[in-house]
Amino acid sequence: MKVLVAGAGLAGLNAAWELQKAGHEVEVFESNTRVGGRCWSERLPNGEVFEHGGEFIDVNDHTIRRLCAEFGLPIVGLGISFDRRWQVDGSIMSEEDLAGHIAALSAAAERLCRARGYRVSLREVAREAYGPDCESLPYCQKLFATTTCDPDQVNGIAIARMFQGHGKGYVEHRGRVMAGNDAVAREIHRRIGGVVRFGTPITEVRQAPGQVTMRSATGEEFAGDAAVIAVPLPKLKRLIGTLDLPAPMRKAIEGRVMGAAAKLNTMVSGKAPPRGIQAPNAPWWSWSTADNSGDHARGSLTSYAGGRATMASLKLEEGPAYWLEQTRAYRTDLEVSDTCVLTNWGSDPHTEGAYSMPGLDWEPEQDRAFDQKAGAIAFAGEHTHFASLNGALESGARAAKLLTLI
User: Which of 120, 176, 179, 202 has the fewest CB atoms inside 10 Å of its own CB, making it the most exposed?
Assistant: First the structure.
């Protein structure tokens, strides 16, 4: 069987590799000049690896951890907690407080769900849980930034249920690939060989009995027996116009919201302990992570802002200067240099956003919409499974399995 794969991010690459291992011919089409998509690593002038995109590998992210073990890619601890962040006054949320916040959010979501059904925004759930001043609470600032979307446009029931597993007893320590997270993508690319066509964005997909065809932006046509579509959500929404999809699948695609986020990676010096600190009274944060010995912070600092409103408040349209100034003003535990790299996923032409969240029209059955094929087409990507590096890889493996099931 020949399978066409649109997208060479982690999802598309893993689908292609699983299909190739099963004996199928694959051809992969990528609009960019590199593999990995939103998994993209580089180095600062001092040699420190930094991540433009996906960074955190959870303890329960078994797929990416298994691949790293197979590829011989060490994963090292970050030395910081993701869900419990330090505040500028030197305090940090306790595990009990975190569990309480998650329980309060969950209870509020279920109350509203019983009263009104599923169409409830995240802002409404937060106000139900914490009152009208919820947006000044550090936990809500973290929550809104993490979703990367306008809290009036994403579904609060879905997101509250998504975070339920992060309560009491949840192991929060996370890691990174020592060589850079995109080493996983680069190794899969090496193993599948020269099957990736770069600079080839797919703009149209059609399906007929026994054949799937893809057309590129330059008018080239490619034909196969089956296909995996693993392009970012905004591109997927444009591609499905020519496809006959099951109603829940179409609704899941059309109703999902693509978020925007930005990262500022900065060279620093000093031996401060690794620490993630919330910006004062603002929905963004920064973190310095452990060196390979785990004793000191590495020579880099990452700032992260999720959501277009937060990004606008940091004046990113003018460049990194204002954000760098704000970061330096409160990260006095490190010597923050002027050497920095700004990555704005909201304006990236290949992804058109950071990652996605369920929209207001979400209903529970949408969570399983991509566990089936649409004819000879399977879908992959964070928007079809879970918004993480591991979720992207798992979605690719699922798509390959769907196409090869008898």
Answer: 179
Q: What is the pLDDT of residues 132-191, one digit of tens each?
A: 999 999 999 999 999 999 999 999 999 999 987 654 445 667 999 999 999 999 999 999
- pTM listed for this prediction: 0.96
**Whole-angstrom Cα distance, residue 94 to residue 74?**
30
Whether the CB-CB separation of 314 and 284 falls below 8 Å is answered with yes
pLDDT at position 165: 61
Q: What is the pLDDT of residue 168?
A: 46
